[in-house]
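REVIEWER CHECKLIST
Item 1: Sequence provided? yes
Item 2: Single chain? yes
Item 3: Sequence as submitted:
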Amino acid sequence: MGRIGEAMARRSRAFGMEIHYYSRRRISPDVERELDATYWATLDSMLREMDIVSINCPYTPETYHLFSAARLA
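Item 4: Structure as written out by the authors:
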């Protein structure tokens, strides 16, 4: 959860949404506590449980095809 993901999380909390995230690096415990955010170790395990997903990452070779029809199913 980078700068944009954190900003999105803050806005989502204002609407009463629960914050769950997957990231290469876990955010600081202070920010995690402030957002009441739940970290998931794998993207696939998190996606199975989510109703709404916001994708906030740069378009790079590592993120190319990050989401597929199979993964979203």
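Item 5: Key structural point noted by reviewer: The CA atoms of residues 47 and 53 lie 8 Å apart.
Item 6: Recommendation: ____
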